Amino acid sequence: MQATNNMRWVTNREVGCNFCGLYGICKLSGLEEPDHSRLDTFVQRRKKVANGENLIQAGEQLQYLYAVKAGMFKSTRYFDDGREQVVDFHLPGEMIGLESLGGIAHLNTVTALENSSVCAYSLHMLEKPKDEQQFEYQRCLLVSMTEKMQQMQEQSLLMGAQNAEQRISLFIMNIARRFGQHGMPSDFFRLSMLRRDIANYLGLAFETVGRVFKKLEQQGFIETRGRLTQIRNIPELALLAGLEPVYLQSSRTA
Amino acid sequence: MQATNNMRWVTNREVGCNFCGLYGICKLSGLEEPDHSRLDTFVQRRKKVANGENLIQAGEQLQYLYAVKAGMFKSTRYFDDGREQVVDFHLPGEMIGLESLGGIAHLNTVTALENSSVCAYSLHMLEKPKDEQQFEYQRCLLVSMTEKMQQMQEQSLLMGAQNAEQRISLFIMNIARRFGQHGMPSDFFRLSMLRRDIANYLGLAFETVGRVFKKLEQQGFIETRGRLTQIRNIPELALLAGLEPVYLQSSRTA
DNA sequence: AACAGAAATTGTCATTTATCAAGTTATTCC
DNA sequence: GGAATAACTTGATAAATGACAATTTCTGTT
Description:
2 copies of one chain form a homodimer.
Chain A: H1 2-7, H2 23-28, H3 37-42, E1 43-49, E2 54-56, E3 64-70, E4 73-78, E5 84-90, E6 95-96, E7 109-112, E8 116-122, H4 132-159, H5 164-181, E9 188-190, H6 195-202, H7 206-218, E10 222-225, E11 228-231, H8 234-241, H9 247-253
Antiparallel strand pairs in A: 1-8, 2-7, 3-6, 3-8, 4-5, 4-7, 9-11, 10-11
Helix pairs in contact in A: 4-5, 5-8, 5-9, 6-7
The first copy, chain A, binds a DNA duplex through helix 7.
């Protein structure tokens, strides 16, 4: 198919700073000052991570908070016996590292699923003496954690899914909402992870994932070309997922 | 069985304040002052909730943070079409409400799974003017959220479970660790939720949950008398769950 | 102690999903 | 651009789980 060749390199847009999870913190650090000199001492901007490379290795010391600027990441837990479990995906605008804040080391390995870039914010700011600004930093962090927690809350719905079709519909709708939340189209995006990753994440065989995607496509709910994914019938997909039909709409207008 | 009659009323111990999720906040508010007068203006202590009663109704305005003092709760999401999804359980020492902090209303209904009691802390403290103490409150909240987030992280492992046996083993080990974390025995506790609740939470049929429990018991990994549950072979159960064998030990000594 | 209702167990059968194997299509790397 | 590799698809079969119905046990109440 010729169209496929044209679309192969289409990728998700870079997220704007105003839609980024680090926005609050960056603003405090001088993002909106004419020269960014102050900001630049705290934030390492647009660090590139090539497809397949690790941004974070499990066991590594916790030093930075990251925000995905462009591209996509997965978090994987590796076990002694060689098994691996994908525990999360990170979309543009979302933060990486919040879930490890309690300890001193990262629990999971974070890998780029395509050529990606991140902004890194040093966690040293948390150790500074208490002052007015410090208070605000903490508040920003609290907001970020709150958002992350709500996202994780939704995973609980995923866990109760009754069958593969519902699980996968829920998964797609979840990704869609998250794209929309950060100012990108919520019905047309690049699903950069492999079927294997999705399957591992959802606890399904990857053949099952493939078959369900195909079925959803045949029913006209979604359309895929390689990794590019378009949702063609949001209400029906939401229904399959067992969500209220307003699911995506409400988060768009919010 | 005669022994059963004796054990019917055995219940989980009340958690000590020093093992409670609200400890930091209560301490700030005067928990350790000789008279508790200051504390009592912020904290409503030992509010009783009878088995089956709702502590929180979905949609209700967010006003308090709760900590489970004794007993057990479940959080349920209700859908328009009548379906319900159990999204979380709350054990003694754990907090309730953190996951809704972002919004103004509760998303889930929280129900007591046995005669329980909670401490309630007014969220108004968060709106007070910025002062030294306010900073500390925020920090406490950040710590609580961090803990909750790590707990939720573990749910991600649950989601990837390959089969019912692994799911349920993981579930039991998870509950066990959480009891241990708050100073209670991690190998002997009352599992107050119904099979139906566990099944709903894990996305399994309740008959399957029952059969797996029975199988685990026949293999000698666990022992149950009614709701009372004892883990008899931690390493084997951890193995089934696909966890490192040190899982429980490490959290005990910590 | 006895009753009523709820919860749990058990057995059978239908459905879903995993597993394995073979073939096809995409990607990556020279 | 082409070879090598990885990812995905498809089909057949086995295994796990869900659904239903009948029975037993448990729980709470009087």
